[in-house]
Amino acid sequence: MIGSGTRLEVSDNSGAKIAQCITQSGKSWGIGDTITVAIKKAAARSKVAAGSVQKAVITETKKEVQRRDGSVVKFHKNACVLVNQKGQPIGTRVLGFATHELRTRGLLKILSLAARVL
Amino acid sequence: MVLKTTTCRFSGLRIYPGRGILFVRTDGQQYLFINRKTKSLFGQRKRPAKIAWTTVYRKQHKKDQEAQIARKKRRATTRTQARSIAGTSLEVINKRRAEKPEVRKASREAALREVKERLKSSKQEKAALRSADAKRGGGKAAKSVPGARAPGAKSGTRR
After folding, report:
1. How many domains does chain B have?
2. What is the 3 state secondary structure string of A19-46?
3. Which domain holds residue B63?
4. Hey, are the CB atoms on A76 and B25 less than 8 Å from each other?
């Protein structure tokens, strides 16, 4: 349940810390969706500058994900991974969790980079 | 069929496939709950040791002790014990138990051989009798032959 204005943590080593969703208002997105974000906070030696507009893939949401086998996965925070226009991750590491929902979207690069997959 | 089950982090109950809510905290800790009730209690920071129906509480207050004792008793009774049976004394049984399989086999074979020899000798005696009857002549002897033969042949195949 990520909508316009939602702030997400950036869980990769691109240098960005906090991103804000700036896609079309009135819609909501979940894990595996690609959204447009504004970088609100970034580290000093960052690949992306604070204030720039980037694409990002949602990896963790506070809203639970219902799976086909009946189980439910839910995170304590909203998080995303920054990607370029082609959908390749900007960072070289994924620090948080990645879920199998990304596999159906063809985001295998993020899955392979992630240390922890649920 | 064996189902792979997991345990609830709060209540300690078994979670079968298709059930459960996985909650991942910011520090990476994973909590698996069986239902919304346990998830809610966890969110309220209740401690499972203070809620009566959880396994932690039941273990602490020794609620399942009777069941454990019963299980132990059942296990004890099923254990087999050597004792004297129907005129055979305990010593004889223990002696037979202690014997090596080779010794037992040898004695068994010796006994079998003896039986076979006995059978053979009895057969020869019978054959001799029969031949004596045949010499005397008459249909009576011919009739009695198959009857006399049958039990002997049967016992032979059985051995």
Report:
1. 2
2. EEECCCCCCCECCCCEEEEEEEEECCCC
3. 6-70
4. yes
